[in-house]
Amino acid sequence: MSVQPGWYVDPADPDTRRWWDGEGWVGAPIPVDVTPPEGPPPAEPAAPAEPSADQPTAPAPGRPAGAAPPAPGQPPAWPQGPGQPPAGWPPGQGQPPGWPQGPGQPPAGWPQGQGPPPGWPGRPPLPRPHGLPLASYGARLVARLIDIGILVLLNVLVNGWFAWRWWQEVSPYLSETWRRVLANDTSREGLPTVSAQAEGLVVVMLLIATALWFAYEVPSMASHGQTFGKRLTGVRAVPVEADQPLGVGRAMRRWSTLGLPTLLWYCLCFGLLLQFVDAVSALFDHPLRQALHDKRAQTVVVQLPRSGDDATRTAPHDRADSPGDTP
Predict the structure, then answer these.
(1) Lower CB density within 10 Å: C or N end of the chain?
(2) Given the DSSP bridges, would you call strands 235-239 and 299-303 parallel, antiparallel or unpaired?
């Protein structure tokens, strides 16, 4: 006769009770002194099956499939995104050595404030208009100083007589004023007057100086993109859209922004201030280093390869466009 299902003392362990289902013991044992529940014990959860070697495991949240789990005490070895530290990495500790950096960020351990190292991924390359590097600020400054020196010599030759006549008009006034300053005499009675001819001579000299500058720079820039100073320093102005001559119209627009304010030197040197702002504006322009006169004429100043240099141009001449008078 079979035994009815129920809770019975386990013969193998008299201190416990187990459920007999009529054919065998099932369920987990309970202490013998504990009142058993009514009915059979709840079914035990099935143990998870061990994955086979050829069966891939499901990736943990935030970890790509196939990535190895992290070792105890180590940060995960999978990327979280450009420039982001790995999940679990202590906040405020930067990024672990060798961790991928975001675009434009220097590698881990690079000195702070030094910018990214040369060639580091994410650093935008320097522009090369028409395959040529941009001229440096130093080369452009030296070229301009050479041109100014030449213009000063031209003005000495052409404006010399007008300058001498102007000095003859103002020297009595200046000499008497200086004598009274040395004598601590603040009176203005009896000072020689400056005639209106002196003011007219200033206007004439400024007109001649502006005309000399125009004649020196515009023709050479229109045909070659270079003045004498630019030739010596190996720089040249070219249109932004094509490597071709500037043309007369573009050369005039480029010169007028910097040259015409010479006429305003008469107004408390206001024109000189405008020319200074134009000259230094290239220092703050990125990425083409264009001064205000470059922006108006849509030109850019490039550095030409030196003779015998191995550097070659990567872009051919573009002659398909019309001459450089187009804006």
Answers:
(1) N
(2) antiparallel
